Amino acid sequence: MPDTEATGKRPMTRRRGAARTRILDAAARRFYADGVAATGIDTITAEAGVAKMSLYNNFDSKADLVRAYLQARHEEWLGLYRERLAGARGPREAVLAVFDAYADHARLAYEHGFRGCGLLNAAAELPGGHEGRTVVRRHKEEVEAILAGHLTELLPGREEKVRATAEHLAFLLEGAIVRAGLEGDDARMRHARDLAARLVDGL
Fold it and tell me: What pTM was computed for the model?
């Protein structure tokens, strides 16, 4: 005989998974376009086409939803970076793949245009101690660690130079994404990539 308990749970699991995806997608659109504080739960559930109870079945609170949104943006960027890295030939191009992935993120279709780094935008709205700020900090730390990893291949045995250069490139990257967000296009990202290429070539 079929396991009725098991067969009864699978459709429920699928429905919950689909609802969670719709909620997260709706939250991503609204948080990025309108800001975290300005976006209420009712707005998200209306756009996702789900009941408010469905949101709370999938997320403990708005803070939990914000954390999930930020983690999803981190994963989105990592996917773009890995695509770029797959085509990189050597550590120099691997460093530039990080900049290319930031530019790729900026070129994605946004409802009200490019507004800069969604992670930084959200972190600026969140209070100290909010779990979402930890997600953003870890993302930025991972980006800098990725740069350091590629630079280690270029500068074996020069740990201090690697650390300083990775920090320099991370500052360049973050400054460019902030200016690009203010100006609404990726021109600053392209310029930052050119500056990074010259910096790496001069090592």
Answer: 0.85
